[in-house]
Design brief:
- It contains eleven helices and 19 strands.
- By secondary structure, it is α/β, with parallel strands linked by helices.
- It has two domains: 206 residues, Alpha-Beta Complex (Quinone Oxidoreductase, Chain A, domain 1), CATH 3.90.180.10; 141 residues, 3-Layer(aba) Sandwich (Rossmann fold).
- Strands 3, 5, 6, 10, 11, 18 and 19 form a seven-stranded mixed sheet that branches. A six-stranded parallel sheet has the order 14-13-12-15-16-17, sandwiched between helices.
- α5 links the parallel β12 and β13.
- α4 crosses α5 and α5 packs parallel to α6.
- The protein is globular and about 65 Å long.
- The two termini are 19 Å apart.
């Protein structure tokens, strides 16, 4: 009979060396030491996103102090193996780890539990900045940085981290809109990846008329949008009839051209949320004076949003629990076993969300 991870004392983990391209490898590392005040969790699924591609390409990343390598993986889903008696968790619970932790000082925002708005940049992040990620067979987790997932979601609970980013974006849209009478009707989401589709889902849950813009003309993305009851567009000119009537934009592509088009298309008193990170390196010509004039005269707000704090994870968990299971299942288009992890980092135009499973 094969020995368990606990009996072996080692486990498999996907590790990489931040700042060095193509350094990812499946390694055997020690099982974390049991700690009485932390959850002991076994990996159920790890989501793969653009950030992971950038980390493995050596573009950025910061290893824990005194180490060269760290464990990858910030989009997690795990099953609790053991939990402290007063933690609110028990064996068998499905949990997601909150990615960002507050800075050690802490700044005013981190002290208030808003580490997603950290002012001094000294926060840490699982799988990205100075904390191991979750792509290991077993890991431990501070119980106050764990969020319980509806067991009925099963493997789909891995969507919680990207959903938390969207939940924050929607919260901030609505808080900005509350500066005056705000009765949004039309929302445009740009990008039909996991974040864009989850943004569209939360828009539909709010009773809004949702339009989604992406480049592909057919396949799982437009099918998922239509199954949600939203309208799909594969070219910006398809939005011409909405010009000036768009109340909310959630921009998830990071494309500079799309960002500018959506700012121009949005109507009076509109709110444009930039949730996609641009790559830079390309210059475009714009009439900044006209752009400024229109934004001022129409009371338009454009703001950026990244990451999430605890309340956003909990809000996202509620949104996922309300979403149709068969629709959420459309988003996970590829499951890759951990030992074949390289396949998960082979891009495919018809993929929405790829996950690694043990």
């Amino acid at each position: 009979m094969a020995k368990t991870v606990e009996e072996n004392g080692t486990m498999r983990a996907l590790v990489f060396e931040p700042g060095r391209a193509d350094s990812g490898r499946l390694a055997s590392i020690p099982v974390p030491t049991a700690e009485p005040d932390r959850l002991r969790v076994k990996m159920r699924a790890i989501g793969v996103c653009g950030t992971d591609f950038e980390l493995l390409s050596g573009e950025y990343g910061w290893a824990p102090s005194g180490r060269k390598e760290m464990v990858l993986g910030h989009e997690s889903l795990g099953e609790v193996v053991a939990a402290p008696a007063d933690s609110g968790f028990e064996a068998g619970d499905l949990v997601v780890g909150i990615v960002r932790h507050p800075d050690p000082e802490p700044c005013a925002n981190c002290a208030a539990g808003e580490w997603d708005m950290c002012r001094n940049g000294r926060y840490t992040e699982h799988g990205i900045k100075e904390r191991d990620g979750f792509c290991s067979e077993v890991y431990t987790l501070a119980h106050d940085f764990a969020v319980k997932v509806d067991r009925g979601l099963g493997e789909l609970g891995v969507l919680l981290e990207p959903a938390s980013v969207v939940a924050k974006a929607w919260e901030h849209v609505e808080r900005i809109g509350a500066r005056a009478v705000f009765r949004p009707r039309v929302v445009v989401v740009t990008g039909a990846g996991p974040v864009g589709l989850l943004a569209a889902c939360m828009g539909v849950q709010r009773g809004l008329e949702v339009h989604v813009l992406d480049r592909v003309a057919e396949g799982p993305k437009p099918e998922a949008v239509r199954a949600l009851g939203a309208v799909y567009h594969s070219a910006p000119n398809g939005l011409n009839d909405l010009r000036g009537a768009i109340d909310v934009v959630v921009e998830c592509t990071g494309s500079d051209k799309v960002v500018l088009e959506m700012i121009e298309f949005a109507g009076p008193n509109s709110v444009v949320c930039l949730a996609g990170v641009s790559s830079g390196g390309r210059a475009i010509t714009i009439d900044l004076g006209i752009l400024n004039r229109n934004m001022v005269l129409e009371n338009e707000v454009v703001f950026g949003s990244v990451n999430a704090n605890r309340r956003h994870y909990r809000s996202a968990a509620e949104a996922l629990a309300k979403a149709p299971r068969d629709w959420l299942a459309r988003l996970v288009t590829r499951r890759v076993p951990l030992e074949r992890w390289r396949e998960a980092f082979t891009p495919s135009p018809n993929q929405i969300k790829t996950i690694l499973v043990p």
